[in-house]
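protien #1 (seq + structre)
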Amino acid sequence: MTTSVASSPHMRIGYLISTFVDKAAFAALTCIFAI
């Protein structure tokens, strides 16, 4: 799986976007619960 992701730039970009979205959603939830 790691090799296929590394060899395909589109998969890599999608992975980065999904990771960023996950971090943003986690940060938003943390802020909501912190308030």
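ok now protien #2
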Amino acid sequence: MRGLPEDNKVPVLPNPKPRRTRTNRKLLMLLFLFFITILAVLFFRSSLSRISEIRIEGNEMLTSAEIGQAAAVQAGDHFFAVNTENVRQKVAALHMVQTAEVTKHFPGELRVVVHEYPRVAFQIGADGSRQAVLADGSAVAVPDEDIPVDKPILTGWSDKDPNRKALCLALSAIPAGYLSDVSEIRPDPSEAYGDKIKIYTRSKFEVITTVGYLPDKIKNLSAYITSMQESKVTSGVLVLLETDDHLPGSGSGTGDKDAKVKAPKSSNSGDKQTEATPGKTSTGTSTGTSTGASTGKSSPPPDERKTE
């Protein structure tokens, strides 16, 4: 039998190989997804996916329980379901909190840092409880054993008095060192100075000034008192208004109202009234130079002054 020509031979087709590689890849991918799903289910059902600790820092007047209640987050809540911004807004809504920071740290830790309004003073409430006065003018009750009385005490103030809030703002901007000798601050308004205040110091001096002058005048208060003590003067009234002056005595005899001194009529000044600072007497042998120093004009002789 004669063979076929070379040109007429049919080529031999190779046997197809099984597609095992592509099938194995699909199987491995399915197994991988299956195990990932199993692990995710186990993780979210385990304690690792839940909040195990809530750390609250920075609070001094607010209790941790009050902050935790406002945050509305408890141990055991899902870690990834807690929205830190929502928690921050809830904590910052507390009236004693100025700002708040909330962060999450894996595994299971929620950290809340609060920044309270500065404590600028204390006062005694109507029920006799001790209250801390904050920089925004609000007052909160504080436990007696936890907070030391290291700020001035406000007495005689009304909660609705706008000067009280202005005073709190002024005190919050004054460094604590300038207020170390201040023990009590009382309102002492007059016709000339609606925001006038009377300050009692631990060094037994009284200070007459205003809420507006306080931030500037308080800087020199320690120097004034030191100068007086070096001169063997251990008490008296410091008048810190447009000009600064010292009056002997404790300022008794004027009561809660300022004594008024009327200057005699003259062709230059006309009828004017000048305010005498507490501690001065309007008749007798009291000196008239102090009144002149506080008003910027020389006062009339004592026998010509008339007390209203």
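Residues 20-44 form the longest helix (25 residues).
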